[in-house]
């Protein structure tokens, strides 16, 4: 079964004019990817950009385009993981005619972007833009700081922690937990949710540590690892990502820690290869999308095609595929490539069947995507698709269907 028959988009893409003729006058759908492409988080950003480019080609460009033959073009704008630099890049992108902004690495960046986009759109109705948040998961972004122009395609930190703490609550041998994370809005949200949910589900568990460290600045995590080992923690919870995840995890293992490390972003971008055998049955992460075992032939075909183009890359953020799939479906439904209000309204409440084994639903009241969430384990056993060419990958251990679909939101959205 082809991807487009699966999604119900093929019929819409069967254009009445030839692709060649349409391309002569069709305007591109331009997505500005504003994420770190240099510095300590460059590998995460660069692999994400490649995943965006590939998804755009696979789902749209290689099939003839959308609406009038328009292509989806994704270009990278290096924000150096800085909110201030992100605002500069946002203005550059808007000035260059980009109407869709993709970002995911860093909720502090997401907060800066969503606020700036909201203000820009109110002041400039003729050049409005949409914010496609694929990985910044501070719950506030779809609660008190929500706005009509922001759509989140990843589960928020509270939804993910709810899934993780369900798993931890069932492990009777876990009595002591250490919480550690990056010192910014997302890290604080992870810590707050972990404390709250563990107290509700396993009041007998002792929180033996709860600390934050500077984001992207710690060169040696040995002092943190030694404190964790000395605390006799049975489990560690962290929201760390990129170089901070790798540094913390490797230091923990090197200093003798052998319990589970429950994570949000501990796969791909060099992390899987760096952990290798030391991370086996230790690293666990909560995430969307099922790669191992692959849920269907479409997923296998997509993964193999991506690796053929990017041999050193990973499909470690399946939500990027979902962003392009849902955006293209919304553009088709709206019948326009430039009216972002119409496209946003098409996204609201949209249901979409992902090749990664889940039905997706964009909750209209807060623009939070609802989807299946998995707890996966780092392993080299039963792996169809590895990460980083390492022979290791992540395999699904447990699943919560449509996680967070009934979760509360404080969003009070003002619509245009």
UniProtKB/TrEMBL annotation:
Domain of life: Bacteria
GO biological processes: amino acid transport
One Pfam family from the record: Peripla_BP_6
SUPFAM superfamilies recorded: Periplasmic binding protein-like I
Coiled coil stretches, renumbered: none
Keywords: Amino-acid transport, Signal, Transport
Signal peptide per UniProt: 1-26
Domain Leucine-binding protein: 29-376
InterPro entries per UniProt: BCAA_transport (IPR051010), Leu-bd (IPR028081), Peripla_BP_I (IPR028082)
Family of this protein: Belongs to the leucine-binding protein family.
Protein name (database record): Branched-chain amino acid ABC transporter substrate-binding protein
Organism: Pseudooceanicola lipolyticus
